[in-house]
Specification:
The protein is an all-alpha fold. It has one domain (4-73). 77% of the residues lie in helices and 0% in strands. It has 4 helices and no strands. Helix 3 (30-46) runs antiparallel to helix 4 (50-77). The termini are far apart.
């Protein structure tokens, strides 16, 4: 059971650490990036601390930028405009 104290920046760091470096290197699919962004947004909505919320929102933005970059690369590799 996860305590409320584990939610926030520390909670994301723990979750990413549990995924492991190998999983992160294999990751790269658009749906994964979007799912991680949504998880950060969900956690941001659940926390009371403004600094934690801001950090989670920033992480969500980074995940969405990665999704956009992945999507753009996928389209350029396929010759799409």
């Amino acid at each position: 059971m996860r305590s409320k104290g584990a939610i926030g920046t520390y909670g994301c760091a723990v979750a990413l650490n549990q995924i492991g470096c190998r999983a992160l290197s294999r990751m790269g699919r658009l749906d994964d990036y979007r799912r991680y962004a949504k998880e950060c947004l969900d956690m941001a909505n659940a926390v009371q601390d403004a600094k934690s919320r801001a950090s989670l929102l920033q992480m969500a933005q980074v995940w969405l930028r990665l999704a956009q970059a992945h999507d753009a690369k996928k389209h350029s590799d396929q010759g799409c405009e």
